[in-house]
Amino acid sequence: MRALLDYDRVLAAQFVSAFAHELDRSLCKRAKAILDIPSVADAHTGAIAAVQRTYRGVRLNVHFHVLALDGVYVRDATSDALVFHTLPTPIHAEVADIARRTAGRIDKILRAHGRSLDPAMQDDEPPKLWSDEPGLAACYAAAARGVAASGDRAGQAPTPLARLAGTGVGEIQEENDPFAEVRGVNLHARQCVDGRDRRQLERLCRYITRPPPRFHLVRYFGVLSSHSKFRPEVIPKPPQDSSAFKPPPASGDQLEFPKLNPQTDAARSSRKR
Asked: What's the domain range around 33?
């Protein structure tokens, strides 16, 4: 599956959209119950997803880093402005529901391509890449398994320079830990950053987009997407005085123009006449 997602960008985009849809559904459903709004259609979410192609050790492992708003925007009846409402941290059951529904959507997508999350239900026909580019397909498969594709160590895992200690990925520390795994869909929702902490938020954005993303590897959803009619209302406006954030020109720089003196300039002009 990792190798399939790595070369099939359309399929990867469909997987991301499937998760974004279920995340939006969960947030809107919770917002309706907590905020007592008339309909889930009155709640508006937002998220940014970055497609990552490798895991630690540069092993091929296509996965998604998602930076989602931890709440919803709701139109205020008095001011007619979009107002943001923070929602509580999701509990394990809510995260598991998103993972379960996402797995169901992904399975429908795969079945349309003759595949399935269930290995027994998969089509025996190999992916098109295996017939068109067998050498490249072998490299994809080896990278996904974390083994060498050729050479003296073909089929063997590389020798690690260091071993990382820690608990297993699928381990749940406590009942309300916001982590779940359903049919191979792993969902971690432990990290939360206050939007007013701009420095920490910048660090998180740099982390989820590492290494620097290529074209179409970052996708926007909800009120953060370019086609959303609510985007102009929720995106921060640039400062009116943009020069306030520009450093002064260095000494001798061509941009360091001399300040004009009206009296001196008038005297020079009269002498020329």
From this structure: 2-125+160-243
